[in-house]
Design brief:
about 130 residues, alpha/beta, five-stranded parallel beta sheet, 3 helices, about 30% helix, about 20% strand, globular
Length: about 130
């Protein structure tokens, strides 16, 4: 598959593993396993910031998997890695596609941290 760019999958640990696996497998079958990067694959020997910089930087597209309970509180929660991942992708002007699970509606703009305000303007797809 020449010319295919990498896709970074960002999700919370609370997302149903079966659903996340289906999304990942679907993307792997369409674009090739080597072109899919998941945030769950961070090597123990590599720090998160370094991983984020490298992997989000090399991906052309981020897929943000959003389920119930996803909405982040603010930009200043240093433990919210998903906010950091999505903000990094938006800051690097990457394409970001949100996958909304189980008929979830997109979080309101008021509930999004400042760094994610433009996420609502991006493509979102509902998956059941």
């Amino acid at each position: 598959m020449l010319g295919i760019s990498k896709i970074f999958i960002s999700s919370r640990k609370s997302v149903d593993a079966t659903k996340l696996d289906r999304i990942r497998e679907s993307l792997c079958s369409k674009f090739g396993k080597k072109n899919i990067i998941a945030n769950i694959e961070i090597p123990v020997s590599q720090g998160f910031e370094e991983f984020l910089e490298n992997k989000v930087g090399e991906a052309a597209v981020m897929v943000a998997v959003i389920g119930y309970g996803w909405t982040p509180i603010d930009d200043f929660d240093s433990n919210d890695w998903m906010v950091a991942e999505i903000a990094a992708a938006l800051g690097k002007r990457k394409s970001v596609v949100s996958i909304l699970l189980d008929d979830m509606e997109f979080p309101s703009e008021e509930s999004l941290p400042l760094s994610l305000k433009t996420l609502k303007e991006r493509l979102s797809v509902s998956v059941n």
